[in-house]
Structure formats: structure tokens, C-alpha cells
Amino acid sequence: MNKIGYLPGVSASGMGLRLSQKFVFLLFLSGLVTLCFGALFFLPDSVRLKRIFLSKTESQPVTVGSDNDLRDHLKKGAKDMEHLRGITSAKGETSTKLKSLSRKPSITNEAKADEKVVGGEALEDLTMSRSKTESSSKDEKVTSSSNQRQINNLSLTLLQATCFQFLKGCCCELGGFAISLVTCILNPLTISVFQMMKFAWDNYKSFAWGKNELRPLTKNGHIGNMFGGLRGASIVDSLDTLYIMGLIDEYNDAKEWVETSLDLNSNGEASLFEVNIRYVGGLLSAYYLTGEEMFKRKVLELGEKLLPAFNTPTGIPRGVINLGSGTSWSWGWASAGSSILAEFGTLHLEFVHLSELSNNPIYTEKVMNIRRLLNKIEKPHGLYPNFLSPVSGNWVQHHVSIGGLGDSFYEYLIKSYLMSDKTDEEAKNMYYSALEAIEANLVQKSPGGLTYMAEWRGGILDHKMGHLACFSGGMVGIGADDGAPEKRQHFLDLAAEITHTCHESYTTKLGPEAFRFDGGAEATATRLSDRYYILRPEVIESYMYMWRLTHDPKYREWGWEAVEALEQHCRVEAGFSGIRDVYAQTVSHDNMQQSFFLSETLKYLYLLFSDDDLLPLEDWVFNTEAHPLPVIRKSCLHGEGGTHDKTTSE
Ligand code: DMJ
User: What is the predicted pLDDT for the residue at 21?
Assistant: First the structure.
């Protein structure tokens, strides 16, 4: 029966509407039709209409014959896109430029032309120059083709999202339609990230569905060995991003796959850490955002399978677990059978929520036991080394890093405090003591005035910072409010300085895996082996937090630079790919679309360009894979209220 039939006084047929109701409805409807189709007719080139409304075979082939034609296209595109390029212009102008982006984008050139640009002529454009001055004119050129593609994409997405929604024709969807239309028109920045997500997802779905990650050059799936027998890492990692962006059909496909095909009875060597941050984190946040019980069932089933990893003399879990047999062991490469700080120290947020959802304290007990041991063990200069024996409970090596092997342990200390509604004093104290030790021993200023966090090897400083360590700008920022009040500004300054340094490492708008500050280097990778970029999120993550904390427009400006660079250098025919050398003249792709690109990089970009009330930081804490988990309100810790009162997600 038609839903409308249930409304009192209104018959199932529109004929039963009163005249005034009919009039309002028709007015609304015709407004939408006019807007939708008017948008098409006001667009500059009608060939595009055919491309949108006709199938591929019916549409007129667009030929881009000579290089001159192509250049004409590029020029035209560049002109139409001036307002978008303006975003990366002089600082003072940025906020005006950002505002100017709120005007409706217009379609410029042909998608076919874009393809040609990407595939052929643009090879020259898709190069990266190491020096900033060398690269500037090239960047201009690259920007025009990318911008042209961007605006086509924006317009297409706008038209698809709005017209398709409309043509579905359901009255109750009109509200959603209006909202997406407003969002599209008012915020082309978020819609371009939305479009990137859709592109990444669609290609994953076409070529790698059910596999862990997409190989976008060879157009096939990658399974890898991090998740044991678990599959669909990109699906689980994407659930919340799709949902937040309003990609509801895509979210529904993902949900259905999780329900019918995510097999948790797998055998194989899984990383406890990776399964926790991606699968447990992804399912938890999908549950909290949508309220779908199926996600809760799945995550509790998975959580139980992780528990045997903690069966060690100290309760410090080993890094690898067979989810089928429950046997666990340490990574072969970790010295003397040790466990890794960033791995066993990055379970707290998810495990506390597993206890919340299951009403079983065991998960919280496991992570509190880790916390206790770390709190009481002696620490060299107050620092936490990266390797610890799960047998003796002693440090195995004195290598300290805020980047790889250490990073998210520090992140989870402050986030545990925030997620506990600021009641977890132990986490807070451990965080600020650790930060004090980091500042005293690791934080350095380069000759060029850049602040960075060096690594520490038994007392000797290694003047290098990893891309992974760039999350720390955001971390120091979100913790600024809760330390000593007189240090608030100091922490905000430190956060801003680190984020600035990380932005500096993005010489070519994308940054290397590690960069150095010795031998004359100022945030540049000096080793060939450090020059790759695998679509990592950390720098953008810090932009997002710093934007939320300061509203300094430079963070959005920097985020937009990253969007452009991702489009120019990482977008390939069937998805996004990492690149092998951020300084190389000719781009070489690594053929991998990492699942964290969908989960983190694109989500942080989307949040960076969205209003602060989309997942407000007072109510949500992001796990290290950017899966939002709700703050657990104080009242529930004292047993007040049911499950539904416990979090802020409802
Ligand atoms: C992600 O899986 C997580 O952010 C993790 O904490 C570190 N590495 C990747 C992204 O770079």
C-alpha cells in the first residue's frame, strides 16, 4: 500500500489532495524540474547533455584530434576553472576565494578530452619536479588539465546526484534531494571529494569486489597477508565514509556484502593491529552511525576471535594471530620475539567499545592490563621504546619513534581520555608525560626553522621524520585544551608548527614516506627508498584537525592542494594509485589503492571541507583508521541509562 494512504485525510492518490496542497506540491515539483533541467541548459556545451542522458554507444564520440585541439580544450578549461585555482593563491585572499567557490560550477570540456589528457599528452603534465621553483610552471599546466577534469566531475556528480535522485520520483526522497542539491551547489569542495570517493569505490567494485584492495592499473584485486583469511578490507573500511558522504546505494551494497559474504571463520596469519583498526573499527563505527544490528553481531563475533592473542605471560598480545585456531606469534622481523608498541598500544578505543556493546568487561580488562604494564615499567628519559617482550615485559630495543612502530600508541592515550568523556585520568597523565618527554628529547628545530620530531636510537638522534609521524600535528592540537592551561597556546603552536613542517615536505603537493633534516635537507627525502607516497592520510589528517581547531583557511587551502595533486598524479583509469617517487619527472604508479585511502584520506578531506557539525570532535573520536567512535558519556560509567544513553551517536 502506498505510504501516503496512511496519512489521515489524504487518499492514496494525489487526486485526493486539497487544491492548495496540490498547488504547493506542483510548485515545488516544477521548481525542482526547472532547477534540474535548467542547470543542464545553462551549461555551456550541449554535447555533455547527450553524454549524460544517452548510453555510451548512443553518445556522440568526442574526438580530440590534434595537439592544438587539446591545448584549446585545456585553455578553455583553465579559464573556466580560475576560481578553483584561486584557492591556492595568496594567503590573505584565501577565504574570499573559498567563498567564491560556492557559486555553481559549470561544465567545461569533454570527459573524452580528459581521458586523452591523462593517457597521452598529459604524460608531460603528470610529472613532478623536485624543486618548488622548477615545478611552478609545470604545476600551472598540470592544474589546468586537472581542474578541467575536476569541474567536469563536479558537474557530472552534481547532475547525477540530483537528477537521478529526482528521477527516482519518490516524494519522500525530495527532502534528501533538496539537501544534496544545496550541498552540491554550496560546497563544490566536498562534492569533489565525494566524486573521488565514488570513483575509487566504483572501480574497486568493478574490478576487485570482495578482495581486500584494488590494483587500479592491472584492474584486479589484491588480497595481501595482513588480514589472514579475511576479505573485503576496502568494503569494511569504506562503510562509514560512504554513509557520511551520502553514497547510500554504495553503502547498501557494502552492507549487503558484509552481511552475506564477510566470513569471519578464516584461517591465516592476520595482524591483530590491522584487523582491529580496519575491521573492528570499521564495523563499530558502521554500527554507531547506522544502528544496524548486523554490524554489532559481526564485530562482537570478530572481537572474540582476537582474544587468544592476549594469552601471553604478560598479557601483552603478540602481533600475529590465526583467527581460526587462535594461535598467535610475533612478527618474524621484530627483534627477539617482541611485540610492537604501535600495535599493542592501538587497541584501547575499539576494545572499550567492544565491552560497551557486549556488556562483557573482558575487552576493557585486556587493554587496561597493557596500560598498567606500560605505566609502571621504567622508561628511558620518560620515552616509550618501540619493542617490548610479551614474555618478560621488558623493552627489547631503545628505538623511539612518533612515526612508524610507535605512532598510534600516543594517539590512543589522548583519544582514550577524550572518548571517556574526559574521565580516564590515567590515560591523560600518561599522554602529557609522554609528550613532555617527546618535547624534551625529540622535538627539534631545523636550521631552516622547521619544527620536527626526530627519532631516537638509544640516545642518538636520527634527524628524520616519517610521513606517519605527521598525524602528530593533529594529535597535539586535540590535546591542547586538556593539559596545563598555561600550556594551551604552546601546544597549539607546536601542533601548527609540525603541521607546517609536514606541509613543507609536500614539495610537489604530495609528500615522501620519510624526510630528513640533516646534510642540508629541510623536510626532503634524501634516499630514493623514502620517496614513495602510498595515498597516506596523516598530513591531511592534521590539516583537518587544525582546521577544526583554528579555522585558519590555510588548512583548507593545503587540503585543496592535496586534492589537486591526488587528481593529477594518483588518479589512473581505474582508481587511485600510490606513486613510487614524489620527485620524479615522470610518474610511476605502484598499482595499489590502499583501503585507508577510502577510509582515511578521503574522509579527512571531506571533513576538512565540511561544517564542523559533521561528526563534531566533542562527540566523536576517530580511531587510527579514521573510523568515528562516539564519546562514552560520564553518566553511563555509573550505570545510568541503557545502551542507547551511553553514547552520543543516537
Ligand atoms: C593506517 O592504516 C593507519 O592510519 C595507521 O595508524 C597507520 N598507517 C595507515 C595509514 O598510513
Answer: 60
86 within some domain: no
Residue 360's DSSP bridge partners are none
Do 556 and 636 lie in one domain? The reply is: no
b/e 97-123 (16+ beta carbons within 10 angstroms → b)? bbeebeeebbbbbbbbbbebbbeebbe
Count of domains for the chain: 3
Domain that holds residue 62: 12-80+115-186
**Distance (Å) from CA 17 to ligand 1 centroid:** 55
Report the distance separating Cα 510 and Cα 495, nearest Å. 20
Same domain, 465 and 407: no
Tens-place pLDDT, residues 23-56:
665 666 666 555 544 443 333 332 222 222 222 2
In this structure, the answer to whether residues 485 and 399 fall within a common structural domain is no
Asked if 472 and 426 touch (Cβ cutoff 8 Å), the reply is no
Q: Which of 125, 513, 581, 600 is catalytic?
A: 513
Report helix angle 293-306 to 248-261, nearest 10.
Answer: 50
From 226, 600, 601, mutation site for ligand 1 pocket: most ligand atoms within 8 A of C-beta: 600
286 and 295 Cβ atoms separated by less than 8 Å:
yes
What local confidence, expressed as pLDDT, does residue 304 receive? 98
Q: How far is CA 531 from the centre of its chain?
A: 21
Domain's final residue, options 129, 155, 186? 186
Catalytic residue among 343, 424, 538, 561: 538
Same domain, 480 and 403: no
Tens digit of each residue's pLDDT (9 = 90 or more) over 458-483: 999 999 999 999 999 999 999 999 99
Phi, psi of 220 (to 5 degrees): -145, -175
Residues 525 and 638 in one domain: no
Residue 107 belongs to some domain of the structure: no
142 and 32 in one domain?
yes
Do the domain assignments include residue 300?
yes
pLDDT for 311-338, tens place per residue?
Answer: 999 999 999 999 999 999 999 999 899 9
CATH number at residue 396: 1.50.10.10
Binning pLDDT at 50, 70 and 90, where does residue 188 land? confident
Q: Which residues line ligand 1 (CB under 6 A)?
A: 277, 408, 468, 536-537, 596, 600, 624-625
pLDDT of the residue at 31: 62
Burial of 44 (0-12, 13-18, 19+ CB in 10 A): exposed
